[in-house]
Structure formats: structure tokens, C-alpha cells
Amino acid sequence: MPTMFSPAPYNILIRSTNWIGDAVMTTPAIRTIRRNFPKARITLLALPWVADVFTACPHIDRIFIYDKQGRHQGLRGKLRLAAELRAEQYDLAILLQNAFEAALITFIARIPTRAGYTTDGRGLLLTHGVRKHREIAQKHQVHYYQEMLEGLSLRRGPDELELFPDPTAIQAADELLAQALQGKTGPIIGLNPSAAYGPAKRWPSAKYAALARRIAAATGGLIVIFGTKADQEAAAEITAAAGEQVLNLTGRTNLSQAIACIARCQVFVTNDSGLMHVAAALNTPLVAVFGSTDHIATGPASERAAVIRHSLPCSPCLKTHCPQGHLRCMELVSVDEVKKAAMALL
Question: Which one of 52, 258, 327, 338 is separated from 75 by 20 to 30 angstroms, measured CA to CA?
Fold first, then answer.
């Protein structure tokens, strides 16, 4: 048992990250925590839209919802959250979220042992701070969380992503897909034209539409479109191109159901997004189109993934909108090269 935490903590709080993709990339770290503390009661503090990533995770005993837009909103809400956490009498908080607020809330909650990176000016709020090494920026983000745990003297476990679809969601997904597959014998191809971070991460919807038309014609399969209500315009363009071979799920599923449907896809074509990391964790073969973001740090951590990108002097810029106004990093990615990569994975 690690000597840094002696006696061994029994009641542990993990502060989750705030985005779906980041949450998926913490799954090896959460497994590492469980392996180091097999007898502990582990609670995950997570925002509502991230919680479904961990609904069926066997390494977590409870999910505590941080209702940031409801009862925990604003300063009064944060104080209420701290009071609720204090009542749970946690003896250790491990902060995977790298933000000042995460450390402040656990400090106010009087959790006696608080561990995490010392960045964002929060070192004085932590009892067990870990310095972030400069070299970590050249590695995949999975290592960012794992190396923080190593800095806390925990025994590092495997770096592979993992995701556990919710059984109820699996049943709902199977029924949905079975109904759409009637008369179709080809594969299920998932398309994800969305990216919450901003338009600089989105391959044009017209190219997704052309891809859908060509893959549907080549395979006779079912094209399943993923996304939120904000992606319905792109989904309509794709549906118009591929016709009856499309199942449009934009705005129709929660995250658990989307995860279960992605697990059933034979290939998944996506922008750099949370669902890209979901597919990687599920070991679903995937093609990821990259432009403005760093494919080394946040690419799909999977051996069954193909990354399509064109190297430009301005890429990756890490911006939500193209600073040059041309979005060439995405426009240069052709439908033919994405189709070729997807067909190779099929």
C-alpha cells in the first residue's frame, strides 16, 4: 500500500473532468486508483453531462452529481456543494480536474487529504501536490492523469482506455438498430459531424454527406448519425444524400444510449470530439479527422484508429474558430481519403 497515504484511505472522492472526451481519457487513472485502494468506497464527483461515462464503471461505487446549473450554481451553490461533501466525511480527494475551483471546494469541504497537480495556483489548497512536468505536453493526455497518480506514489496500472456500456442502454440501442436494419445486410457505419469545442474541429457537413452517399452505395449498410440537436442541420444534409440507409440519432439519445450504439458500429467516422474518445475506449474501429487540434495529445488512444490530417504551418492552432478564416486544414481532407480509411477498417 502506498506509504504517502497512511493509514490507507477508506472513503475517497475523485473529482472528474468536465468534458466527455477528457472523462474517457481519465478511465485508466480511475482504474489505477481502484487497484491501489481495492477496499475503499470510491465516489466520483461529476457534472451531469459527464456522469453517463461512468454509469456502469465497476471501479466506482457512487456518482455524486455536481449540479452546476441548478442547486450548485453560483457562490451559494458551491458553498452548498462543499457542505454536502463535508457531510460525507471523505478522507481523501483526488482531483483529476485541473482547476482552482476543484481544490477550493474540497478545501472548504474540509476533506483532510487533497491531492492533485499544483497548477492553476492551487498548490496551497492541496495537502499532496504534484508538479506537472513540462514533457507531459508532448504525450497523450492519458499520461497526464496517470503521471499525476505516479507523483502520489500510486502503482500505475495499464494505460488502455476502457468503457462499460450501461446494460439498459444496450437493450434500447439494440432495439433501435434492429428496427432500422430491417432489410439491410451491410455493416453499421457511424458518422459524427459534431464537435462541441467549435467549428474549427468540424469537417464540413457537405463532405460527410458525400461520404455517406459513397459508403452506403459501396456497402449497402446502415449509416447512423450521432450528435445533439445542434447537429440536426448537418444530419439533414447527410440524410438527403444517403436516403433510406440513414438512421438519424441527433438529439434523440442520451450519452448512455449513444455509447451503446457506438459499440455496435463496425466503423465510426468522427471529428475530434468526445464521441471519438468513446469509440476509442470501446475499441470500435474509427476514422478521426483532425485539423485545429493536436492529434498527439488528444488523438484517439486506440490501435484500431486512423487519423486523417494535413500538416499546415498554422495547424494545430488549438483555436475554436480558424484565425485565418479559411479552415484549409479541414477543407484539404478529401472524401476519398476518409472513405478509403473507413473501408480499410471495415
Answer: 52
CB atoms under 10 Å from CB of 184, counted, come to: 15
Cis, peptide link before residue 38, omega less than 30° from 0: no
Greatest CA separation for the chain:
63
Structure-block grid coordinates of residue 276:
471519438
In this structure, are residues 262 and 279 in contact, taking their beta carbons and an 8 Å threshold? yes
Nearest to 160 by CA among 13, 30, 60, 276: 30
C-alpha cell read off for 234: 448537418
Cα gap 147→156, rounded to integer Å: 8
List, for residues 140-169, the tens digit of each pLDDT value. 999 999 999 999 999 999 999 999 999 999
Record the cell numbers describing residue 160, joined without a space.
488502455
Q: Which residues have C-beta within 8 Å of that of residue 76, sequence separation ≥ 6? A: none
Q: How far apart are CA 298 and CA 272, in angstroms?
A: 8
What is the H or E stretch that residue 308 is in? strand 305-308
Question: Has this prediction a pTM greater than 0.85?
Answer: yes
CA dist 293 → 138, 198, 212, 308, 315 (Å): 13, 11, 24, 12, 7
Domains of the chain: 11-151 (3.40.50.2000), 167-345 (3.40.50.2000)
